[in-house]
Design goal:
Residues 23-142 form the Alcohol dehydrogenase-like N-terminal domain. The protein has 345 residues and is an alpha/beta fold. It has nine helices and 20 strands.
Length: 345
């Protein structure tokens, strides 16, 4: 079968790899769609992301959906032909957690994630024609949710986890800074929770998508518009250290900032004085627990992730797809790969 394999910085290939087989407790998924994430771009550009560094070739991709092609021994409740996505996280070792983080499986010390080089051996992702997946990681798609949209359940789960970290939102004024795919999904999730949402970004195209996802107001920072000064709660979704200071200043005294944009693993300057003088709470948000299931329920109930999808490419055009996703000048938001060999939509 064909798969998207990262070898090193600047070296991503569509390669022939052995066909997988569904083992005990697994199903074989014929993948149809995959969404390109910032970590996929980082492996392509830099040979790693954060502290995870490629040491040998690895299949990319953790935002995927397809249909079950085979069911392994010991699996019940799943049938060939079912449309599914996958929870990309697998806990390794003792699943017990300290009481202070009980239930927060995303904080387990050893989590293998689709398309991650965090551990040896690396964990292959799902940018391939087929992948064997443990049945407990499978999430069936509800009726009416296509595999194209189902592949976005994972990033929507990330956004929902960030919103859950923030607490009650109904009636609160919320700033979402950075309207790439995750930021735009945070906009949608916050609106679903009853917030009044102000979205800010440097790109007018991203702000247009945020508006379509439900933003009540947008601020184009590239045209001289400024952030508010009294947001009850802010979500920093750009992951740019230089943005942290302005977002802290935009948050009302005694408010909170949820950091959902992934920050660099290396030292970086950031203006943090307002964290103290405004008595702000700075909250980290990492991946998700099982909000991917809630994401599918929201799609079933009418949340449309379609506005995020700006480009689709066939599997063989993965380098062009990565380049498009990495370059904001292209107007890209979520770039999708057709993984089954069919022509991209």
């Amino acid at each position: 079968m064909k798969a998207v394999v990262a070898h090193s910085a600047g070296d991503v290939r569509v390669a022939e790899v052995p066909d997988p087989v569904a083992g005990d407790g697994e199903v074989l998924v014929a993948m149809e769609w995959g969404g390109i994430c910032g970590s996929d771009i980082s492996y392509w550009r830099h040979g790693g992301t954060g502290t995870a560094v490629l040491r040998h070739p690895m299949v990319l991709g953790h935002e995927v959906a397809g249909r079950i092609a085979a069911v392994g021994p010991g699996v019940s409740g799943l049938e060939v032909g079912d449309a599914v996505t996958a929870h990309p996280a697998e806990l390794v070792g003792d699943p017990a957690l300290p009481e202070r983080i009980a239930g927060r499986s995303n904080l387990h010390s050893h989590v293998r994630y689709f398309g991650s080089a965090a551990f040896e051996p690396h964990t292959d992702g799902g940018f391939s024609q087929y992948r064997a997946v443990p049945a407990e990681q499978i999430r069936p798609l509800p009726g009416g949710v296509s595999t194209l949209h189902g592949a976005l359940a994972e990033p929507l789960g990330v956004a929902l986890h960030a919103v859950n970290r923030a607490g009650e939102l109904r009636g609160r004024t919320v700033l979402v800074n950075g309207c790439g795919p995750i930021g735009a999904l945070v906009v949608a999730a916050a609106k679903r929770r009853g917030a009044v949402v102000i979205a800010s970004d440097l790109a007018a195209t991203s702000l247009g998508i945020a508006e379509r996802m439900g933003a009540d107001e947008t601020r184009d920072l590239s045209s001289g518009q400024e952030l508010p000064t009294d947001a009850d709660l802010s979500f920093e979704a750009s992951g740019v250290p230089a943005a942290i200071g302005p977002v802290l200043r935009a948050t009302a005294r005694g408010g909170a900032v949820v950091q959902v944009g992934n920050l660099p693993g290396d030292p970086a300057p950031a203006a943090l004085g307002d964290l103290v003088t405004r008595e702000l709470t700075w909250i980290g948000s990492y991946r998700f627990v099982d909000e991917i299931t809630a994401a599918l329920e929201l799609m079933r109930d009418g949340l449309d992730v379609g506005p995020l999808i700006t480009h689709t490419f066939g599997l063989e055009a993965v380098e062009e797809a990565l380049g498009t996703a990495a370059d904001r000048a292209t107007g890209s938001s979520k770039v999708m790969l057709r993984l089954d060999g069919c022509t991209a939509a």
